[in-house]
Design goal:
The complex is a heterodimer. Chain A is an all-beta fold. Chain A is built from no helices and eleven strands. In chain A, the strands form two sheets. In chain A, strands 2, 4, 5, 9, 10 and 11 form a six-stranded mixed sheet that branches. In chain A, strand 6 and strand 7 (62-67) form a beta hairpin. Chain A is globular. The termini of chain A are far apart. Chain B is mainly beta. Chain B is 0% helix and 53% strand. Chain B has no helices and eleven strands. In chain B, the strands form two sheets. In chain B, strands 2, 4, 5, 6, 9, 10 and 11 form a seven-stranded mixed sheet that branches. Chain B has a four-stranded antiparallel sheet with strand order 1-3-8-7, with no helix packed on it. Chain B is globular and about 35 Å long. The N and C termini of chain B lie far apart (31 Å). The chains are: A mainly beta, B mainly beta. Chain A binds chain B through residues 31-32, 34, 36, 41-46, 49, 51, 89, 91, 93, 95, 97-107, and chain B through 2, 4, 6, 31, 33, 35, 42-45, 48, 55-56, 58, 90, 92, 94, 97-107.
Chain lengths: 114, 113
C-alpha cells in the first residue's frame, strides 16, 4: 500500500525551462510535506517543505504547491539548471501517528539538458 | 554536508552474519531515524530514537535492532543476514523529532553475498 506516489519515474527538461515534479498521496491525515533531492552516492538533501495549512511555499527557484482536496503536491523549479539533475523524493509526515517518520515516494529522476 | 556521519560507507558480508551500522547525528540533534532503501521499495522507515529512548517503529524486522547511546550516536544491528537485506541504510536526525526536516547521512551500502 503506497501512501505517497510519484508516478513519473523520470523527467527531462531543457536548461532554463520549468521543471514540474508531481506527487500524490492517499492519507488525508498527512499534515506536513517535504521534497528531498538526492545525488548518486549521497544521502537525500532537504529542499523545501509545506504545512497542510498552506497551499504554496517558495524558496528561491523552488516552489511547492499543495492541493489538499486533490491530495496532490508539486514542486516547480524555475529556471532549471544542469545542477538540478538528481532524483527528487516527495515525503509526508503524519504527526498524529505518534511518530514523525517520513513516508517517501519512490522518486522522480530529473535530467536537465544543457 | 548534512552533519550526519555514517560508518562504514560500504559493508560486504555473507548470509547468516551480523553487522553493526553506526550513525552520529548533527550536533545538537536529539532524534535519530533509520531508513532502508532497497532497489524496488524506495526509502522505508525502520525506527526512531529520541534522546536515548525508542520513539517509533516502522517496517523493522525482528532480526534488526537499534539503540541510541548517551552521547546520542546510534547503532543499527542486523543479524542472521539474508540476501534480501542488501540495501542502502540511511540515518537521519533532527532537533526534537517534530515536524522539522530530517537531515540525512550518506548511507551505508550493505551487500550480502
Amino acid at each position: 500500500d503506497q501512501q505517497v506516489k510519484q508516478n513519473s519515474p523520470s523527467l527531462s527538461v531543457q536548461e532554463g525551462r520549468i521543471s514540474i515534479l508531481n506527487c500524490d498521496y492517499t492519507n488525508s491525515m498527512f499534515d506536513y510535506f517535504l521534497w528531498y533531492k538526492k545525488y548518486p552516492a549521497e544521502g537525500p538533501t532537504f529542499l523545501i517543505s509545506i504545512s497542510s495549512i498552506k497551499d504554496k511555499n517558495e524558496d528561491g527557484r523552488f516552489t511547492v504547491f499543495l492541493n489538499k482536496s486533490a491530495k496532490h503536491l508539486s514542486l516547480h523549479i524555475v529556471p532549471s539548471q544542469p545542477g538540478d539533475s538528481a532524483v527528487y523524493f516527495c515525503a509526508s509526515i503524519w504527526a498524529g501517528a505518534g511518530s514523525y517518520q517520513l513516508t517517501f515516494g519512490k522518486g522522480t529522476k530529473l535530467s536537465v539538458i544543457p | 554536508d548534512s552533519g550526519v556521519t555514517q560508518t562504514p560507507k560500504h559493508l560486504i558480508t555473507a548470509t547468516g552474519q551480523r553487522v553493526t551500522l553506526r550513525c552520529s547525528p548533527r550536533s545538537g540533534d536529539l532524534s535519530v531515524y533509520w531508513y532502508q532503501q532497497s532497489l524496488d521499495q524506495g526509502l522505508q522507515f525502520l525506527i526512531q530514537y529520541y534522546n536515548g529512548e525508542e520513539r517509533a517503529k516502522g517496517n523493522i524486522l525482528e532480526r534488526f535492532s537499534a539503540q541510541q547511546f548517551p552521547d546520542l550516536h546510534s547503532e543499527l544491528n542486523l543479524s542472521s543476514l539474508e540476501l534480501g537485506d542488501s540495501a542502502l541504510y540511511f540515518c537521519a536526525s533532527n532537533l526534537r523529532g517534530g515536524n522539522q526536516p530530517q537531515h540525512f547521512g550518506d548511507g551505508t551500502r550493505l551487500s550480502i553475498l
